[in-house]
Amino acid sequence: MSEKTLLITGITSFTGRSYLNESSSLDYDVIIGQGSNSYFKFENGNLTEIKNAEYLKILSESGEINLLHLATFYSLNDEDKNKIYEANVEFGKNILNLLKNYQLKKIVYTNSLFAFNKNLRIKNSDYVKTKLEFSKILNEFSLANKIFFKEIYLDNTFGHGDNRNKLLPIILSSIVNNEPNPLQNPKNYINLINIYDLIKTINSLMEIDNSIKFAIYSKNDFEIKSIYEFCKKYYQKNELIKIKSKKTVIDEKIPTSIEKIEIDCDIQKLLTSTIKNIE
Fold first, then answer.
1. b or e along 25-57 (b: 16 or more beta carbons within 10 Å of the residue's beta carbon)?
2. What sections of the chain are H helices per DSSP?
């Protein structure tokens, strides 16, 4: 039994799955809270379901508990309003209600840079509103209980095993399955970071006793059409072509109260390694 326990929510998400893949060497007991009555222990690269009693026993015997809260439900559809609130607010409140009885020391929470999006439909969506609402709850809880609260604002992440209904997985799927070009706004640019750069950042946060809010993003934005053409050329002919990029403007939208971390995303390396893994 380690003196420290890492409790993770949201392991079915792309970020959660990727984090577990990199977690076998962590100096923590890693446990998972997945829904109200579903608990797991992650040990030696294996995920084992445990009973509620063992879950509580691990928490009670731990001298330090750190919460990595990745659980989220993304949707911009009005009919998903209740699901969004349940996943993004109520589930988290239940976790906090439990952990207030144990030695909770740090909380790491992933929020969305959609909160600063110029598109009002996105900025005013239930998804963004609930993420910000729970951010406020976490901040108040942490202040009241002297807990270190670390909040990470994210835009687009990508890496091996990403099968979300998002732009890059859709692009790769269309190429691999010889489907029509799926791009609707090919001249647009997106910001993108490697999921493993995010994981490295999370792990470094776990080692520091402080509270911080910051945004993590790539210093460059990348043209969507250029990404598609690169992926198609590399997948079909193993050839490399240049991906158009420009200095990001995402930092201009972020309030000064939030620190900024720019990542140098090697997008060619990221895409080629991902394509090799699906061939």
1. eeebbbbbbbeeeebbbbeeeeeeebeeeebee
2. 14-21, 52-61, 81-85, 91-99, 120-123, 126-145, 167-176, 195-206, 224-237, 267-278
Separation between Cα atoms, residue 195 and residue 158, nearest integer Å? 5
Q: Please give the DSSP secondary-structure letter assigned to residue 107.
A: E
**What's the rounded Cα separation, in Å, for the pair 85 and 78?**
11
Contacts with 277 (C-beta within 8 Å, 6 or more apart), sequence order = 160, 161
- What distances in angstroms separate CA 267 from CA 193, 202, 274, one per listed residue? 8, 21, 11
Model pLDDT, residue 2: 61
Q: Chain-centre distance of CA 99, in angstroms? A: 22
pTM above 0.90, yes or no: yes
What is d(CA 19, CA 195) in angstroms, rounded to the nearest whole number? 9
Would you say 3 and 147 are in contact if contact means Cβ atoms under 8 Å apart? no
pLDDT digits (tens, 9 = 90+) for 193-224: 999 999 999 998 888 999 999 999 999 999 99
